[in-house]
Amino acid sequence: MIMKKMTKIFLASLTAGLLSVGTFAALAGCDKTAEVTPEIVTNFTINAETGEFSFTGVEVAKTYYVRIYNHSEKNEDGTEIPLEEKMPVAARRVRFKSDVKEYSGEVDFSEFTAGADYDAYVYTYIKTDDGDLIFASTEAKPFVYKTTYDTPAIDSDKLTAEIEAGKLSLTFNNAFFTDQYLDQDPSYLVTLYRGDNVVATKTIANSDVQVKRTESTNSSGQVEVTVTSFAKTTIDAVAELDGYALTVQVISTNDKAYYDSAVGAKVDLSSLVKAPETDDKPGGEGGGMESGGF
Hints:
By secondary structure, this protein is mainly beta. The protein is about 5% helix and about 40% strand. It has three helices and 19 strands. It has helices at about 10-15, 20-30, 180; strands spanning about 1-5, 40-45, 50-55, 65-70, 90-95, 100-105, 115-125, 135, 140-145, 145-150, 160-165, 165-170, 185-195, 195-205, 210-215, 225-235, 245-250, 260, 265-270. The chain is elongated and about 85 Å long. The relative contact order is 0.15.
């Protein structure tokens, strides 16, 4: 159990919900003995994928907070940062209601790192007869954040198709490779259809994705780095685009961090034809794949 005391002057800061346990401890500055002791909630659960939580409340409280902390944080010298000195990475205030026993809600996990370890707590706050706020917390509930890869949405900017020497040539362009897709080295499953029939499948490993870093100097003299990615594969025995369609699915290679994406919508190959290049654009500084290629 964690229990600390905080004087009235910091009540306004409490509502922000993001002050660390260490902040409360440091600001307490009061050695009066509390007349009451906060109770600890029970039956605390949290969904490691969605952030949904629930717990059974106590008889008397001022408010509750659900807080999430990185499981491990280290100082520059390599020593572990104690909980009372950490800042939570997410928090949710839950108002106490005297006529409510079971509470539920959701913490925003959108900024969490897939595959990372976290600890969740519920804090119960009460006010003493002196007007001070004190709190107690549950024990840590550790979890690993796991999420699902986004479903690929394919268009001709992200994937182009053409027939080369009697083979279907597919090029995944830079616009396809989101930061999430490049995280944890997934692979990409391409399924080719003719009508409703599967005629071929092809897996593109993350190691097949070529990455290029291009440095340029802007007008302020600052160096800017552009990172572009692409992958190319071919499928035999496809001599035309008409009548064919494909789907793409992102396949996880790290079961701790990601689930496979859903299969993307079926897209006609004829809609993925690369737009013809024109010569009516002025030359100049190029970016991405036109500044030297891969």
